[in-house]
């Protein structure tokens, strides 16, 4: 359970614990399987769908012995209003709904024994379609509807209820209904599937791990938050996010709610990856999320922070960070914007990282992009 963040990965990240490395790579392989199962061919009538059925998806993607079975394909939808002239554009330009990930459940006795529980995985890919790129640009913060009143926060000096705020585009992709999927949104699909799994395996020790790359990392954080809040009366299992190259998701209030509900987040970050530095601004004040009274201006600074939090571009980092660097690898032929953000680069860096004092293993050549 320590590898799932029970103790916030204290003492496991620098140097990187070998067992934790293996777990991170294992979840990274699930994300890679989403990419491999996505139909990228724009000339195909099934562009944007999953190429494989549930029962063969992992095998087809080179993961035959994971001990997991895929139970549900997941679809995300953009509700951006398209101008009329786009009606004549190719399908790959106008596609609003597309396959974005899957839910898988551990069903192998030996793997369950190794883990000490039955693990549920939700894996998401990164940005692929044109409308998803547009959603990424909707960087203003918007209030996140609260699925459960218990997670609502009240200010002592306010009579109104305040809620966490998250990036508009990410929330739109998570909550917009899909016309071709019985009007279900990604949010509804996930909730429905998790509810069924909790029913099927009631009484068993369970864990939920949500993992994703890029846009998928943002959706993974939103999903973990939403599932934990939605099933609060039924969900005692550990809920963990393992994200690769994720952008910022929400404001400080969102971070505080994640921490309050006990959701653990491990962010794998490449310091050369621009995507991890957007969107918006980040305010690094009050480490440990508390203002230390080191001067007589604490109250003044706190009032300034409260005002700044109302600005649409003020974001907060979440969880624990494993920081890597492309330049530390002697095996990468080039270090540019695209390479630094690729999932394969992230898996390569995780495989090779030793510690801040010894950045790379000489024998690590796996996952080269």
TrEMBL record:
| Key word Membrane present | no
Q: Which GO terms describe its cellular component?
A: chloroplast
Q: Does the keyword Chloroplast apply?
A: yes
Pfam families per the UniProt record, alphabetical: Lipase_3 (PF01764)
- The segment(s) forming the Fungal lipase-type domain are 121-281
A GO molecular function term, named singly, is: phospholipase A1 activity
Location within or outside the cell: Plastid, Chloroplast
Looking up InterPro entries in the UniProt record yields:
AB_hydrolase_fold, Fungal_lipase-type
Which keywords does this chain's UniProt record carry? Chloroplast, Hydrolase, Lipid degradation, Lipid metabolism, Plastid, Transit peptide
* Biological process, per Gene Ontology: lipid catabolic process
- EC no.? 3.1.1.-
Signal sequence span per UniProt? none
Per the record, the similarity remark reads: Belongs to the AB hydrolase superfamily. Lipase family.
Extract the PANTHER family matched here.
Answer: PHOSPHOLIPASE A(1) DAD1, CHLOROPLASTIC (PTHR31403:SF54), PHOSPHOLIPASE A1-IBETA2, CHLOROPLASTIC (PTHR31403)
* Name by which UniProt lists this protein: Lipase
Organism expressing this protein natively = Cajanus cajan
